[in-house]
Amino acid sequence: MAAIVIALANGKGGVGKSTVALNIQYAISTMRDTDSKPMNLNALLVDADDQQTSTKTCNARAKLGGMKVKGVYQPFQPIEHIFKDQDVESYVKMVTERHDFIVIDTKGAESDTSREVTTFANILLIPLSPYGFDKQALADTLKIVKKGQRFNPDMLVMVVFNKVDKKATAKNREGREEVNAIINEIFAVNGKTAADNNVFICAAELSYKPTFYSEMTKGYNVFEAARGVSLDPKTEYDKLLQEIQTRYAQINNAQEAA
Ligand SMILES: Nc1ncnc2c1ncn2[C@@H]1O[C@H](COP(=O)(O)OP(=O)(O)O)[C@@H](O)[C@H]1O
Ligand SMILES: [Mg+2]
């Protein structure tokens, strides 16, 4: 079975591509089924950014080795990861049978690798802050996505709001409307909706939590950083994964029926 490829993209830096790549890799590999049994899914992390943010975090994690949970030292499960900023697709093809999921962290939509991933990823996540985001940069990213869709029409594309202040409801709504307008301008053409082109804005949002996310440079993921203090990151990522799963199933069921 080929792996499901989840790629992160956005022309802008600092929006949370590496952060989401790392946390989603962990969330997938620790996923449980409906009977709460570990699914033991194998998720490979491919770092396709020459700045190697996610590789550095993985290395820091390896050095850290583990953490104390309720006074008991627990070793981390190692993260399978590789730095590959060229020929990503041929690499993915080579190893796809060995993994359930392959998560690809990219440099940005303007880079060669992020153009490349839009042509073969099954799922493309575009993290974005809802506040004062660069409209032109988002439009440019989405135009690249649209080009990629010519080769890859079944790709699920989801904008994920990150660094969200849940209390700023008016601002959040405004940001959502602005992003929606940009998406519609690019994808709602020729009598089709953005949804017809598999492009959505996630209902699930990731909160702005600098105290937890800053711990990631030390090698923790956000769930470990928040352990014993807040369940929010876990709840948010669970919701996000569920939403991705539902949308992904819808696309693939429709495809099977056709
Ligand atoms: N939800 C969040 N809350 C607080 N800080 C965040 C959040 N998501 C990301 N960050 C921080 O924002 C910075 C940029 O994130 P990063 O994932 O490296 O972005 P990118 O890979 O898109 O350049 C990092 O310092 C990270 O810790
Ligand atoms: Mg990055």
From TrEMBL:
Q: Which Gene3D superfamilies match?
A: P-loop containing nucleotide triphosphate hydrolases (3.40.50.300)
Q: Name one Pfam family in it.
A: CbiA
CDD domains assigned:
ParAB_family
The segment(s) forming the CobQ/CobB/MinD/ParA nucleotide binding domain are 6-181
Alphabetized InterPro entries for the sequence: CobQ/CobB/MinD/ParA_Nub-bd_dom, DNA_Partitioning_ATPase, P-loop_NTPase
Q: Please give the SUPFAM superfamilies that the UniProt record associates with this protein.
A: P-loop containing nucleoside triphosphate hydrolases (SSF52540)
Q: What is this protein called?
A: ParA family protein
Which organism's genome codes for this protein? Pseudomonas haemolytica
